[in-house]
Amino acid sequence: MEKRIVSTDAAPKAIGPYSQAVTVGDFVYTSGQIAINPKSGEVEYGSIAEQTKLVLENLSAVLSAAGASMQTVVKTTVYLKSMDDFGEMNGVFSEFFGSEPPTRACVQVARLPKDVLVEIDAVAYKADSK
After folding, report:
1. pLDDT in tens, 20-56
2. Distance between CA atoms of residues 99 and 64, nearest Å
3. pLDDT tens readout for residues 75-118
4. How far is CA 15 from CA 53, 87, 93, in A?
5. pTM exceeding the 0.70 threshold for the entire prediction
6. Three-state SS for 86?
7. CATH 3.40.50.300 fits 3-124, yes or no
8. Torsion angle of alpha carbons 77, 79, 85, 90, nearest 10°?
9. 19, 20, 35, 130: which sits with the fewest CB atoms below 10 Å from its CB?
10. Can you tell me whether residue 12 is helix, strand or coil?
11. CA nearest 53: which of 124, 116, 127, 126?
């Protein structure tokens, strides 16, 4: 199987030595996305709901560039600055994944890049391999 690096201007550029996503065979592995506006390159420090929405929009853009979608996500990991934000994050998360959500781990961490409130990564399969 060939490894392919995925990059798109529709999501924030990597801020370190990593790729937005990598595909191997029919699977897509994304890097964690944070609340960076892909047009300005600036962090949007809004509420947890606002940050989660932007994070999931960025994740969707990366998945799309890789030939996948939110509907083909099988696993996510959510990193929260505070578990007190779980309910609001969960509400936005459910809007993006609907009635057949992926598996998920959710953990509270001491600190996230650029002091954001949430980061999410995903594993998906390419839509055409369904």
Report:
1. 999 999 999 999 999 999 999 999 999 999 999 999 9
2. 20
3. 999 999 999 999 999 999 999 998 999 999 999 999 999 999 99
4. 20, 29, 24
5. yes
6. helix
7. no
8. -10
9. 130
10. coil
11. 116
